[in-house]
């Protein structure tokens, strides 16, 4: 009887190990979705950055101002590479530093 108890307990322990291996495999593939983080901004360009964040994220002017002033802060998550690069270039042109993670 104790033998059956041990064999049943061993089987579920093997399953999580297989799941971890499956999760590690996609990490080796090229990343397609990125998170965009507003790192910092040029003080002179603050109004332009606030306006761009407002239109990009659909926030109110007050919320956009608070968002920009609280940098570094996560802007968007799960953004495709092409769209992320466009956003980074747009904000970089305005004087902000955005990082794709």
From TrEMBL:
Matching CDD domains: Ribosomal_L7_L12 (cd00387)
GO molecular function terms attached to this record: mRNA binding; structural constituent of ribosome
The keyword 4Fe-4S is assigned to this record: no
Region described as Disordered: spans on this chain: 1-24
GO biological process terms, semicolon-separated: translation
Domain Large ribosomal subunit protein bL12 C-terminal: start-end pairs: 34-99
Top-level taxon: Eukaryota
Gene Ontology cellular-component annotations: mitochondrial large ribosomal subunit
Keywords: Ribonucleoprotein, Ribosomal protein
Cited SUPFAM superfamilies: ClpS-like
Bias kind Low complexity: ranges: 8-18
Pfam families linked: Ribosomal_L12 (PF00542)
PANTHER family assigned: 39S RIBOSOMAL PROTEIN L12, LARGE RIBOSOMAL SUBUNIT PROTEIN BL12M
Similarity-based family: Belongs to the bacterial ribosomal protein bL12 family.
The protein's name in its UniProt record: 54S ribosomal protein L12, mitochondrial
Upper taxonomic lineage: Eukaryota, Fungi, Dikarya, Ascomycota, Pezizomycotina
């Amino acid at each position: 009887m104790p033998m059956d108890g041990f064999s049943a307990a061993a089987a579920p322990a093997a399953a999580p190990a297989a799941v971890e291996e499956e999760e590690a495999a996609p990490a080796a593939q090229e990343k397609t979705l990125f998170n965009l983080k507003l790192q910092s901004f040029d003080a002179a360009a603050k109004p332009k950055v606030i306006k761009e964040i407002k239109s990009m994220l659909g926030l109110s002017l007050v919320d956009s101002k608070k968002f920009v002033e609280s940098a570094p802060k996560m802007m968007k998550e799960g953004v495709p590479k092409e769209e992320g690069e466009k956003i980074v270039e747009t904000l970089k042109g305005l004087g902000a530093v955005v990082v794709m993670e």
